[in-house]
User: Fold this.
Amino acid sequence: MQAIALFAMVAGAAGSPIAALGAVSAGAQASEPLIRAHALAAGAPVKIFFPAGTIRIEAWDRDSIEVRGHIAQHERFFMAGDVHGVKLGVDDHPDGSPVAASDVVLYVPRSSQISVKSVSAAITGTSTAGWFYSVSGAIHLSGQSRSVEVESLAGDVTLDVNAPWVRARTGDGHLVVRGAPEDIDAATVRGPLDIESATIVHGRFASVQGDIRFLGAPVANGLLEFSNHGGTVSLLLPRAVSATLDLSSIEGPIENRFTQLRPAAGATPGSGGGTLHLQLGGGGPRLTVRTFKGAIRLQAR
Amino acid sequence: MTHITEDERQGLADGTLNAEDAARAAAHLVVCEACAADVSQLRTLMHRLHAAASASATLDEDLWPAIRDRIESSKVIALDASSGTRDSRSPVARRRPVWLGAMAVVGAAAAVIVAAVVLRSSRTPAVIPAVSVSPPAASTAMPVPSGPAGIPAVTRVSDSARAYQQQLQQLLDEIEMQRAMLGPSTTAVGDSDLQVIDHAIAELKTALERDPNNTVLRQLLAESYQQKLDLLRRLRNAS
Assistant:
């Protein structure tokens, strides 16, 4: 059995900072498992670059950071910093060649401000806050969080968080919003966007070509805006919902399967577009939908 | 840790470093906050020069001293304390004639582009990116509504359009500089998504020419512009 490279293990309090971690930031032996740890103050930033493989980040109620996992052969793990902040990850190749997949689990203090960037690596975060970025890797965040900002060029993004503020972007990936966010701004370019939440107070959802589907009951006084250029926007609302809806499409059809009311014709004769204003129940939350040529579908669930 | 050289920093910032050196330097930036901050400062400096109306614009003193001090420490001849402008005859300016000359050309070109954009935007309000700024498209032929501070709304419209164009150009410049460091698949995805958004913008602008007062179209156009900015930022972050 290979030896475990235990470079530093500190289970102490934040008040006893270890020597600058730069002293132990030498690369891990390529084929060996990895375990490293040291003290980290509450709220300290944790900056991660992890190109390929999987990285799981979990919040814990300790004032230390710990990394466990396996680093691919010939790849170099780095970790540097001190009690006030840490930078860690796997080095990129100077010649631009792909980095082999590694797998790590990272435990961080609950209040840490995470900043993680991956290329193809899948990122999973539980009860963590900060900025999460991938080029093509999937990102899945869950649990309680202060704020979350997620960006991907083409990766799938799944958010199942309870957070006051969430911002999410992906290009071609599938963006799913669940959990209990309050203020959220989510958008895709071509990927589908699914929202399944009944806690959103302020929401802005947009796509260029991806279909948007909202499945939930808007909260009282909620303000939700949906815009789409070519994709469909589907609102699946409870039959007993109270809401004011303003639906507008320049060229796309508006399909009202909720009431008997038909949309008014659009400004351009023969364009196929139209507008529909609806007040359901006692009004309350306001939902606005705009599309250029994408269809708008309203239906009960 | 061996830091990248001054020339490499500046070459990386202005995109003149060859691909191999750029990739090596970029890898260093990932692990070195000090060098990354320097290169970022240099890029900011360059973009401010891009946005400057004249080639003799004063550099931001918040930004320049740190860079100048570093260069200064490696020189024999001391800089004059007042040499914080590009047109000064400082030794630094004389030592990097190609870099500064290129920036002067870019600065002049940027001034022309900005002027063209402003002129165009004042004639074509369809390029207004901000939802909150929404005088009717034909407003130049109608009484100009005033903003809360008594500022004519049309002024805010051109400011908004100019700010957007500057932001867009800055991001495009950065991405162009970083293109060599982006993988081919990343570039392909980015280019493909940009085409999708640009196509949407073109469709919306055509529709707005037919129906310039349509607020829904204007809001959709603003949203598309925002999507483009977001995508460019994501692409910039990929390198």
